[in-house]
């Protein structure tokens, strides 16, 4: 495999940790890891030569302009989740970085968006741009703006679904940190029935896919947008799998209707943002042709709810 010069932004984040670790362990590529605080990078960056830590952030990306001109593949995981500078980082500085790459040399930009900006057919979801959170609207805006860039034909956009991950050496995703708490309520949850569906994907499986895309970049005419997720699950299927893992029997199930939810919201005067209400009505966050390591005949690390619970440290009570 040809040795490449790679840039990974957001290397100290959950997904960034998994990707950086995979590339250190499994490749000989020359790696440049951009982090704001090197102390937050917990993986072994001295394991082999060819690994350089770049201390800085996206707001200072122009300071690395000379290096960016020499990059063969850029993996852009850095993101701002909120705050006053969210659009500056997630849109304008991200575009500035892409413009600083040399479109003659750089063979691929792997840009991390979010599946929340897509509808079931993997097309932009207009509500995401109109009433989404600042984070979602910033990703929606960037998705449209990158189409005008000189390097756009080389951009591979990935859209992670619900992200799992984290361990003693990596920061936990928001979703993973809450799983053990949810299982405490399984004796109530198992008797409820809900209309909804979703995908999830673990950071290690994301890293496997990204490493494959780096080594085998899409060619002219190939798809360049990929939703990252395991096979879609209904909420009821997920509850059944959790109950099977925990050895809990389901004797009956009470449907949770949207009408009941709206009555509760009105009765208790619960304040809901427009995006939250939209999500409650939309319910089915599933997408066409979601990919995972199995899509490339590679092994999945976390493919089902049993894997999720084991990895999250939940004990099997059967």
What does this entry show, briefly?
By secondary structure, the chain is α/β, with parallel strands linked by helices. Helix content is 36%, strand content 16%.
Write the layout of secondary structure elements.
Blueprint: E1 5-9, H1 14-26, E2 30-35, E3 51-55, H2 65-68, E4 73-76, H3 86-100, E5 108-112, H4 126-131, H5 134-145, E6 155-160, E7 162-164, H6 174-183, H7 186-189, E8 192-193, E9 197-198, E10 200-202, H8 203-215, E11 225-228, E12 233-234, H9 235-246, E13 254-255, H10 258-267, H11 274-282, E14 284-285, H12 305-311
Parallel strand pairs: 1-2, 1-4, 2-3, 4-5, 5-6, 6-11, 7-10, 8-13, 9-14
Antiparallel strand pairs: 9-12
Helix pairs in contact: 1-8, 3-5
Defining key terms:
318 residues, alpha/beta, 14 strands, three-stranded mixed sheet, seven-stranded parallel sheet, 12 helices
Note the beta-strand portion: 15-25%
Shape: globular
Let me know the average pLDDT: 90
Structural class by sheet pairing and helices: alpha/beta
> Could you list the spans in which at least 5 consecutive residues all have pLDDT below 50?
none
Percent helix, as a range, is: 25-40%
User: How far apart are the first and last residues' alpha carbons, in Å?
Assistant: 46 Å
The biggest sheet amounts to:
7 strands, parallel
Per DSSP, the total helix count is 12
Structure description:
The protein is an alpha/beta fold and 318 residues long. The protein contains 12 helices and 14 strands. It has helices at 14-26, 65-68, 86-100, 126-131, 134-145, 174-183, 186-189, 203-215, 235-246, 258-267, 274-282, 305-311; strands at 5-9, 30-35, 51-55, 73-76, 108-112, 155-160, 162-164, 192-193, 197-198, 200-202, 225-228, 233-234, 254-255, 284-285. The chain has a 7-stranded parallel β-sheet, with helices on one face.
